[in-house]
Amino acid sequence: MSKKNELTLLMAKVLLKLTSESPQAWDQSYCRFLAQDKNQASFQFMSRLGKTLRVLPAPPEYTDLLGPLMHSLFDEMQTETTHRPVLAVLTVDAAKTYKLKLEYHNPHAHEISLQALGTKTSYFASDEVDLPL
User: Fold this and answer.
1) Which of 2, 30, 57, 120 gives 20 to 30 Å between its CA and that of 111?
2) Residue 92 CB-density burial (10 A; 0-12 exposed, 13-18 middle, 19+ buried)
3) What domains appear along the chain, each with residue ranges and CATH number?
């Protein structure tokens, strides 16, 4: 297994544990990691049940685990492609399948927030989730 795949699997396990410990019912969870440079990074976490999207609270112990893993993944991708990603969106579902989407140029791409729903930068297709009222 490549280092990229090992890191992604480990991050998926952390996200799955975070979501499983949440009292919210869910069928998918999302982690968006933005790091335009190595010294500054931010996270967003969301969970989804059907078409309803909710903020997923993330205690610091999870971001403390995921931050170094994401930076290691970005380092690995820079070694492979000579370009460093600026953001990643990791998705895990209740069946324990996961996927990772990387963006190398646009720090505003793949927004997972409720405010971004229905915009061209949203990670979600327009009919994939309900817009909040």
Assistant:
1) 2
2) buried
3) 3-116 (3.30.500.20)
